[in-house]
């Protein structure tokens, strides 16, 4: 995809992003694809169908990225965010993942689900969106009249010294074979993807669930489509072709003026869907006066998912307004939204951004973040269950220890409450 001007290439990039995002929003709404719901089904009902839909999306994206990267059609090593970066931010992946998992449980859904619900008329999700947006924005942008961010204030001073720098990319392929990384990534991706497909379809119940199969396949393909488009938009020039990000880096040499220059260059790198940082970008877009230079893949994807969900809610007549059930419900959602804002930025992604997109790059940090998100969500659900069943008898400590026993992190002898 070669364009004669940067403006034409960027317009195609953003319009293609919008189309993919609308498809994503409509399919997620139609099929009730929900990562928090998947964890809830597993923990509370021993039902793995929605989790398998999630795994199917991971498998499709992973196999696709492995094949396309091997053929040179996808560049996952230069991605935004840098999933394969040489700095292994394992503390941030794990802590951010746990915070995000807790947050999405308290707020009744992850960042993607928040957008889906907004498209379906859920007003309380707009409040959740606003809280995520403010926290996520100031995690990476300084406060007014300051050079401090939430990240630099709360996390950098103690997480940075614990972050090792490795000599190669942090993905499985690069770690296994630094000299033959491209081939190693292909083999590792195909093995992982095939294994996930086997796990997914070995369930007869899942094989009969059309919506779950549809959601897993389409979401995986949409994510792969974003990887492909963002890796292949190029600008033709007299001395060769430039990617959008390369053209941005050489702007002073290639462009006649600053007209049409994006505010940030890294958002032009190869990428796919993630939602917490882009929700923060949306706040920045409105805060700074709706400047065209602030339009990014992430911002457009947020808008597109809401539009797609809205369209489907009109088609199947499910659009309806919803508000908080009580003050307690309001406070719980606010806390959950704030934790998602912190955790999603800290972990470098959400259940989609790290749980599918990051894993498709085989990045070690993405697997850590995904496991931490599931753990944080599952623990929160089980603690809530014990607190509800035992009321005054169940302190947080007792419910926490018992939940760890349930998930076999502690021996049965340490159980504080009878299993429910």
Task: Name a few traits of the molecule.
420 residues, mainly alpha, 3-stranded mixed sheet, 2% strand
SSE blueprint and pairings:
Elements: E1 2-3, H1 6-31, H2 35-45, H3 49-70, H4 90-106, H5 111-119, H6 123-140, H7 150-159, H8 172-176, H9 181-201, H10 204-207, H11 210-232, E2 234-237, E3 240-243, H12 244-249, H13 251-254, H14 276-287, H15 297-315, H16 327-346, H17 353-360, H18 364-390, H19 396-406
Helix pairs in contact: 1-5, 1-11, 1-15, 2-3, 2-18, 3-9, 3-11, 3-17, 4-16, 4-18, 5-6, 5-15, 6-14, 6-16, 14-15, 17-18, 18-19
Please tell me about this protein's structure.
- The model has no long low-confidence stretch (mean pLDDT 95).
- 65% of the residues lie in helices and 2% in strands.
- It is built from 19 helices and 3 strands.
- It has one domain (2-414).
- The chain starts with a strand and ends in a 14-residue tail after the last helix.
- It is globular, with a radius of gyration of 21 Å.
- The protein is mostly helical and 420 residues long.
Outline the low-pLDDT stretches: none
> What is the percentage of strand-forming residues?
under 5%
- Overall mean pLDDT: 95
N-to-C span: 57 Å
Number of strands: 3
Strand order of the largest sheet: 1-2-3
Number of domains: 1
Task: Kindly name the structural category.
Answer: mainly alpha
Number of helices: 19
> Which word captures the global form?
globular
Sketch the topology as an H/E string, one letter per element: EHHHHHHHHHHHEEHHHHHHHH
How does the major sheet shape up?
3 strands, mixed
Helical content stands at 55-70%
Rg of Cα set: 21 Å
């Amino acid at each position: 995809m070669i364009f004669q001007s940067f403006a034409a290439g960027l317009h195609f990039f953003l319009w293609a992003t919008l189309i993919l995002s609308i498809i994503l929003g409509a399919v997620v709404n139609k099929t009730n694809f929900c990562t928090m719901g998947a964890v809830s089904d597993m923990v509370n009902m021993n039902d793995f169908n929605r989790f398998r839909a999630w795994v199917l999306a991971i498998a499709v994206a992973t196999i696709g990225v492995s094949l396309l990267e091997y053929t040179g059609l996808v560049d996952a090593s230069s991605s935004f965010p840098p999933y394969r970066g040489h700095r292994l931010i394992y503390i941030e992946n794990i802590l951010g993942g746990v915070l995000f998992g807790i947050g999405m449980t308290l707020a009744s859904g992850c960042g993607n689900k928040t957008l889906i619900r907004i498209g379906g008329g859920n007003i309380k999700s707009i409040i959740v969106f606003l809280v995520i947006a403010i926290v996520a924005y100031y995690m990476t942008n300084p406060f007014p009249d300051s050079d401090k961010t939430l990240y630099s204030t709360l996390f950098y001073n103690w997480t940075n010294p614990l972050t090792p720098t490795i000599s190669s990319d942090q993905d499985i392929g690069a770690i296994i074979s630094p000299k033959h990384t491209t081939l190693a990534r292909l083999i590792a991706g195909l093995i992982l993807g095939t294994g996930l497909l086997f796990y997914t379809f070995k369930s007869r119940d899942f094989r009969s669930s059309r919506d779950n199969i549809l959601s897993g396949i389409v979401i995986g393909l949409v994510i792969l489509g974003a990887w492909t488009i963002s890796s292949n938009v190029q600008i033709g020039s007299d001395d060769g072709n430039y990617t959008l990000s390369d053209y941005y880096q050489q702007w002073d040499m290639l462009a006649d003026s600053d007209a049409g220059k994006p505010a940030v260059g890294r958002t032009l790198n190869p990428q796919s869907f993630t939602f917490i940082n882009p929700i923060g970008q949306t706040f920045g877009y409105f805060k700074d006066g709706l400047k065209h230079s602030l339009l990014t893949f992430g911002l457009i994807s947020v808008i597109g998912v809401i539009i797609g969900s809205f369209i489907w809610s009109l088609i199947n007549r499910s659009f309806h307004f919803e508000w908080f059930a009580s003050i307690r419900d309001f406070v719980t959602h606010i806390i959950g939204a704030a934790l998602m804002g912190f955790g999603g930025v800290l972990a470098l992604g959400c259940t989609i951004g790290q749980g599918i997109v990051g894993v498709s790059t085989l990045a070690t940090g993405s697997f850590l973040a995904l496991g931490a998100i599931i753990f944080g969500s599952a623990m929160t659900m089980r603690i809530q269950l014990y607190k509800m069943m035992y009321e005054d008898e169940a302190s947080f400590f007792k419910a926490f220890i018992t939940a760890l026993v349930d998930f076999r992190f502690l021996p049965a002898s340490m159980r504080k409450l009878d299993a429910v």
